[in-house]
């Protein structure tokens, strides 16, 4: 294995980050800072950094939602190993195991499931668009203040809903706020999960869009906020569509590789 294939950055806060840096060292990996800085024995980035012609970081271990989001929205060139309490992320022990396999000399990397995760651009018609890793919502500023929204799909089909808002989520974010709003869980490559938030009707639809969706406020009565990955980004103007589309993709290692499935099957039969 080339030295550049052993370069691993571990970013995020907390005890898990320190544990995973130790796991990289134990597996023979070369620790690097997120910008390519070498990391010393104490875990701090050294003064010397790798220039544009230096070796690239092969793996980026992102610990926690904030670190994962940064890796996605910045379109990391490294394979991201997400560590968080999410369906498509590893817990601490799972991350240690996958690092051992990815850094192993015996081809264990073949047993790691790799997927491509979308980076969403969110354009509200203003000068600067936002990027999202998990979800995008248009929602009334006050709870239980129903408004009307249009949900537009790339093939020209539109739906209209009365609700507190609408949420659209990536596969990584589909188990969070979107799932609480009864949006479907989506596997990598499966599209964008979309659902109304607290709909007025007890019978309503949820959808899976392809690589994009358009959300529009159709009533002018209630102030509507634009929320990207849990952060409010301003007010949505009525009749001005919010365009959400996949603009890039990031390589992810995720739970569920052949070895893990075999271990789970053995465990269930014991």
Automatic annotation (TrEMBL):
Transmembrane segments: none annotated. This is ATP-NAD/AcoX kinase. Pfam families: NAD_kinase_C. The keyword Transferase applies. One of its GO terms (molecular function) is NAD+ kinase activity. Keywords: Kinase, Transferase. The keyword Cell inner membrane does not apply. One of its GO terms (biological process) is NAD+ metabolic process.
